[in-house]
Amino acid sequence: MNSYFSHPLSQQQAEDKAVGCILGGAIGDALGGPVEFLSLDQIRSKYGPNGIQEFDVAYGKVGAITDDTQMTLFTIEGLIRANVRGTLRGVCHPPSVVGYAYQRWMKTQSEPYASFSIDEKMPGWLVLHKELHHRRAPGLTCLSALRQWKESEANNQSKGCGTVMRSAPFAFFYDPWKTAYDCAGITHGHEEAKVSSAILAQAIYYILESNGVENAFHKACELDTTNSLSSQLVRTALDLAHSSVDQYRAIESLGLGWVAEEALAIGVYAAVKADRDYECGVRIAVNHSGDSDSTGSICGNIMGAFLGERALPSRWVQQVELSDVIREISVDMVTNFPPDSENHTPEETKALTDAFWDKYPGY
Fold first, then answer.
1. What's the pLDDT score for residue 7?
2. Does residue 5 fall inside a structural domain?
3. What is the pLDDT of residue 248?
4. Is 155 exposed, middle or buried (0-12, 13-18, 19+ CB in 10 A)?
C-alpha cells in the first residue's frame, strides 16, 4: 500500500489539500452538530429563516466535533499504519489495520474493544488524546458491528451513513475505490453503504488530480458498473444543483441523509450549488430535517479538497474542536514514508522512520 504521491502535487500542495479536506469536513460536522436531530422548522424557529449560520453549542461546547470526525480521524490513523506496515514489512491487509483503528475508537467511547488492537507499550498517538474520549452520538450500527468484529465483513444489511461520512481519507491512498468499499464493510453490509463510500473516495481522488467537483463525481459514478442507487442519486443531485428548484426542496427530494446514498447526494448537491463558496456550501448542507452533521461533513470534505485549507474561514478553524490535532494528522497522511534518503543521512533517516513508527505503529 502506498501513499497517494502518484498525484502531481508538491508537498505544500498535498498538505493544503489534505488539511482542507479533513479540517473542512470537521468544520461542516461541527456546524451541523447542534441541529442534527432538529427538523427544518425547528432549525428556523431557533436560528431564523436562513437556519444555522455559525457554530453553536453542542455537547457542552461551541465548535464540538461529532462521531463523524472522530471516526474519520481513526480512519486516517488506520490507513497511515497500514501504509507504514506495508512499506516496512512488505505485507498488509488495509481493512484489518483500519478495523484495529476502529477498535481504538471504541475504547474512546467506553465500549468493549479488542485488546490486541492496542499495545499499551506503544499505543500510537491518536488514542492518547483525551479530548477524543467522549461520546458524540455514535452510530448504533457502527457500535454493534464493532462489538462483534472478527476481521470480517459486518453481518448486517445496514446502509446507514456511518460509512460514507468517514470515507474521504481513502482518496489519499492507493486504490481509493476498493479500499473505501472494503473498509465500509467493516461496519455495514449493505451494497449501497459500500458503493457510496467508494464514490466519495474516488471522486475526491479525482479532485486531487485537478478535476472540478462536478466532473469528479461524474467520473466516479462511471466506475459503478451496477448503476446503484448511490450513483443514480448523485447524478440527480448534480442536475438539481443546476436547476431553479429551491435548495430546501431540492435537499428534501434527495432524502434526509440518514442512509449513505442520501447523505452523499446532499453533500454533493451543496458543494456544487455553492460553487467555490465554502461557507455557503456547508450552510446549505446542514440546514435540513435530517442528518445535518454528516451531510455537513461530507460537503466540507469535498469543498475542502477542491479549494484547499486557505478557503476555510479562519474563525471556524480557530473554534473547531481539536483543530491542531486534525491538521497534524492530515499532514502526516501525506508525508513521504519512509523519509527521502537523498535528503537525509542514514542516521537521520533511521531516526525519522523510528519516530513515525512510534507515532503510527504498523499493526
1. 62
2. no
3. 96
4. exposed
314 CB neighbour count, 10 Å cutoff: 8
For 112-134, b where at least 16 C-beta lie within 10 A, e where not — what string?
Answer: ebbeebbeeeeebbbbeeeebeb
* Cα-to-chain-centroid distance, residue 231: 19
Q: What is the CA radius of gyration of the chain?
A: 19
What is the rounded end-to-end Cα distance, in angstroms, of the chain? 14
* Cα–Cα distance list, 138 to 24, 116, 143 (Å): 20, 22, 7
Does residue 128 belong to any structural domain of this protein?
yes
Low-confidence ranges of the chain (pLDDT < 50): 1-5
Cα angle vertex 268, ends 264, 274, to 5°?
150
In one letter, which amino acid is 320?
V
pLDDT for the residue numbered 329: 98
Q: What is the model's pLDDT at position 91?
A: 83
- Hunting for cell 481519507 — which residue is that? 169
User: Does any domain span residue 3?
Assistant: no
pLDDT confidence of residue 340: 74
d(CA 163, CA 193): 6
- State the Cα–Cα distance between residues 341 and 182, nearest whole angstrom: 33
Domain count of the chain? 1
Helix (H, G, I), strand (E, B) or coil at 345: coil
The Cβ-side half-sphere exposure at 87, using a 13 Å CA radius, reads 20
The CA-based angle 238-241-247, given to 5 degrees, is 135
Question: pLDDT tens for residues 43-75?
Answer: 999 999 999 999 999 999 999 999 999 999 999
∠ Cα 98 99 100 (to 5°): 90
What CATH number does residue 249 fall under? 1.10.4080.10
Is the pTM for the entire model greater than 0.85?
yes
At residue 275, the 3 state secondary structure works out as coil
Q: Please report whether residue 6 resides in a domain.
A: no
**Range(s) of the domain holding residue 199:** 11-151+160-359
The per-residue DSSP string of 281-336 comes to HHHHHHSSSS-HHHHHHHHHHHHHHHH-GGGS-HHHHHHSTTHHHHHHHHHHHTS-
